[in-house]
Write a structure and sequence with these properties.
The protein is α/β, with parallel strands linked by helices. Helix content is 56%, strand content 8%. The protein contains 17 helices and seven strands.
Length: 485
């Protein structure tokens, strides 16, 4: 049974409200730890945050059983991970060695009863919070920051998007064919080995042969020389023959593998993944044949950019270097106080398609005075829908403007807010520093959760900076410091 937090401190543990967090450190960790301490020690905020976590993590669970990791520990570990842009091994090391983090978790620092956090336990528990839960907690953090600043006036919001890369290699149909074939052979060997089915003892040989053919074709495509087209064609045919031989072997053994999959849930999961990679094997055999043998240009909508992260999109935003990015666009909305009010993971969506949903969500939650977008969000429909919703809408038009549009975009308020729109780029850079430059987690659900954790870590950093600034002023006042003339 999980608890919200440990009511009784362990021997040697410092009470969380008494932790001495450095107020003059320039590192990114103290502000986040100070914000978490503020959440823990503020009863009203504490109650709301734990109600949200409890509704998600403990829904449908019994009130009895072994004690699990507390909700407080899950929240702290999740935000520390994104604050440091750390993988789970680094997080495990920090939780084992960093006394300040251990103090915030309520764990003691020494002795025979010193609490340990196994690596697998951290992985299993940190992944329990989802995007919706994190969005609700993030809203509470933002409102707490506004209250500390004593700012109840309407907000000036800037909206922009950037690409969060997924953890994939650069995709070519040759390498994706190898990935699919390698995983098919590996999974078929595991299923056959447990079910004592013969014929897959040399699965590693299939992977090695596919890899050799893939490298040979890739090198020939990259270099020149006489009769290049002929040599590439022959190497591609050899590669396709090897892949087709693996495909035929899988088809022949698929009934026995499917029967073996019915023996256990583990085998059933393996067979389900085998079917998934087998479909990709067939697809990429077809794509390689059409491109290198038939000389066909493959339409963009037929291409796949990762067999492991199929949600991945090929994105070129036309910026300096013209470098394509592999991932998903993330739309973020920042206010004038530095907080990110909301975000949206854009699957198969463009900027102009999310302007209205983002604006409606913001207006529902916060008092909005102005909304600022860049030209990528422009459309006539967006302008007509958003104009009545806010006092000032900064939505520059693409292309040529008529007289009315020119006058609208040259008012003093419009030009001032448009100049200030660039400040959202600093928030995007800070998000990338908080882990949201490349997502190491697998699957679209974990991708979205990772985004939510990154935004929460960023806002906790902002909240912590406000608190530490107040702490520094109080410290200077108590010590009788005066500003230099």
């Amino acid at each position: 049974m999980r608890k919200r937090f440990e009511v009784q401190y362990e021997l040697g543990a410092t009470p969380i409200e008494e932790l001495d967090i450095p107020v003059r450190s320039r590192d990114e960790m103290p502000p986040v730890l100070r914000a978490l301490q503020y959440i823990y020690t503020t009863p009203e905020l504490n109650q709301k945050v734990f109600d949200i976590l409890e509704a998600k993590i403990m829904a449908g669970k019994k009130k009895t059983g072994r004690p699990g990791m507390t909700l407080w520990e899950i929240l702290v570990l999740a935000t520390v991970r994104l604050t440091r842009d750390a993988d789970y091994d680094e997080l495990h090391y920090m939780v084992t060695t960093d006394n300040l983090i251990r103090g915030l978790l309520g764990a003691n620092k020494f002795g025979e009863t010193r609490r340990d956090y196994p690596l697998q336990t951290i992985k299993d528990n940190v992944g329990l919070v989802d995007e919706e839960t994190l969005e609700k907690i993030n809203e509470l953090v933002v409102k707490a920051g506004h209250q500390l600043l004593k700012k109840n006036d309407a907000l000036d919001v800037k909206v922009d998007s950037y690409v969060l890369e997924s953890n994939v290699h650069f995709p070519t149909d040759l390498s994706l064919l190898y990935d699919a074939g390698r995983k098919c052979a590996e999974l078929a060997r595991k299923i056959a080995s447990d079910a004592q089915i013969s014929g897959w003892r040399k699965a590693k040989s299939w992977s090695r042969r596919l890899k050799n053919h893939c490298r040979k074709v890739g090198k020939l495509c990259a270099c020149g020389g006489r009769h290049k087209a002929l040599r590439v064609r022959q190497a591609a045919l050899d590669y396709l023959d090897c892949a087709e031989a693996l495909r035929q072997k899988l088809i022949a053994d698929m009934p026995s593998l499917e029967q073996a999959a019915q023996t256990s849930e583990k085998q059933a999961n393996r067979f389900q993944r085998l079917r998934y990679f087998f479909d990709h094997l067939e697809k990429h055999i077809d794509l390689v044949r059409r491109r290198l043998i038939d000389g066909e240009t493959i339409p963009h909508e037929e291409k796949v950019f990762s067999v492991f992260e199929p949600y991945t999109e090929w994105i070129k935003k036309g910026k300096a270097g013209n470098r394509p990015e592999l991932g998903l666009p993330i739309c973020v909305a920042k206010d004038q106080y530095g907080f990110i009010l909301t975000h949206r993971v854009m699957q198969k969506e463009h900027d102009e398609e999310v302007a209205i949903p983002i604006a409606e969500k913001l207006i529902e939650r916060y008092p909005i005075r102005s909304l600022s977008f860049d030209k990528n969000f422009w459309s006539v429909r967006n302008y007509r829908a958003l104009s009545p919703l806010v006092a000032i809408l900064v939505l520059p038009k693409k292309g040529k403007r008529n007289q009315e549009e020119y006058e609208r975009e040259h008012t003093k308020a419009f030009k001032t807010l448009r100049r200030h729109h660039a400040s959202v780029e600093s928030a995007i850079h800070a998000l990338e520093h908080h882990g949201l430059n490349r997502c190491p987690d697998r699957g679209i659900d974990h991708f979205k959760n990772y985004v939510g954790l990154g935004v929460l870590a960023y806002n906790l950093h902002q909240l912590g900076n406000i608190l530490l600034k107040k702490d520094r002023k109080a410290l200077s006042k108590n010590r009788g410091y005066r500003k230099a003339a």
